[in-house]
Design brief:
This protein is about 55% helix and about 10% strand. It is α/β, with parallel strands linked by helices. Keywords: Lipid metabolism, Membrane, Transmembrane, Transmembrane helix.
């Protein structure tokens, strides 16, 4: 066999072996569907032969190696952490993001502890019926310190062997959709009680457990925390306060290895996004406004 031909084949084979090794590392802990990836393997086989037949050896090896590196870096999935011993506490799982997240993480194999406002709610019952036996549902009202303490005790018992790996601060409310002046002071207070004070109290309560496990805190905030969106003064103010304190936690918890993330989701149809909910809020707002304010703005505006 020609020496240059042998060297060329050896070089291409070396690239393939290294590529297969990287692919194995990523696929070994991945839940990604295999079928689309096979298309890329076929493409690489064809591309290798084109490089081998029509390009000088050095140029072909460099080009083929670059394409292989791009495919494994961009196309292939990243390695996923083992989840068997990972416990996650998620708040606000009656509906919306919390419920979907509890379903997803339970299906992936996490040990999920989900809080709901009412154990008899349709969302709580659906979680009980559709999730695995490892999922635990607890009732918790973020405005009640007693509920937070009870939840803390249950979480400690359920995670005695594994520790608490993550806290997902999802629970929140948005009431009385209206201008800043039209929003009642009770609206500002209720939003702050749930979206800020309650969430901060829960986070502080669970921090010793998260420090011990070098875990993470994921908090659902809102674009209204960053932008003065119309009709969301009370809600936006509470979420802005929440985002700021979580940003502070992000820096302060670095020495303990605790990761802190804040998510600003777009507009999704959740428990607070249905027509009946807002019609009820609208009627309550009209009934609560002072007559002079109602006359100044006009019922049509509101």
């Amino acid at each position: 066999m020609d020496l240059s031909l042998f060297s060329s084949l050896w070089a291409y084979s070396s690239v393939w072996l290294f590529f297969y090794y990287l692919a194995y590392l990523k696929f070994s802990n991945s839940a990604m569907v295999v079928t689309p990836i096979l298309v890329y393997f076929v493409f690489l086989v064809i591309f290798e032969w084109l490089c081998y037949l029509y390009l000088p050896t050095i140029l072909g090896i460099v080009l083929f190696s670059s394409v292989c590196w791009y495919v494994q870096s961009i196309v292939f999935p990243r390695r996923m952490l083992p989840v068997a011993d990972k416990a996650v506490f998620i708040t606000g799982c009656d509906s919306g993001f919390g419920k979907v997240t509890a379903h997803k993480l339970d299906k992936m194999g996490f040990k999920v502890i989900a809080s709901v406002l009412d154990l008899q709610s349709s969302g709580a019952k659906d979680l009980q019926e559709t999730c695995s036996d490892t999922l635990t549902i607890i009732q918790m009202d973020l405005t009640k310190s007693g509920d937070i303490k009870k939840a803390h005790q249950i979480i400690k018992e359920k995670t005695a062997e594994t520790g608490l790996w993550a806290l997902v601060n999802n629970a929140g409310i948005c009431t009385y959709f209206g201008d800043a002046e039209l929003s009642l002071m009770s609206t500002y207070r209720s939003c702050m009680e749930v979206n800020f004070f309650g969430t901060v109290e829960l986070t502080k309560t669970l921090l010793p457990m998260l420090r011990s496990s070098k875990g993470r805190i994921v908090t659902i905030s809102s674009p209204a925390a960053e932008l003065p969106l119309p009709l969301l003064a009370a809600y936006g103010a509470s979420k802005a306060a929440l985002s700021r304190v979580m940003d502070t936690f992000y820096h302060e918890l670095v020495p303990w290895g605790v990761n802190v993330s804040v998510i600003l989701p777009g507009s999704y149809k959740t428990g607070t996004g249905n027509k009946i909910h807002w019609e009820t809020q609208y009627k309550k707002l009209l009934a609560s406004l002072p007559s002079e304010v109602l006359q100044e703005y006009g019922k049509e505006y509101i």
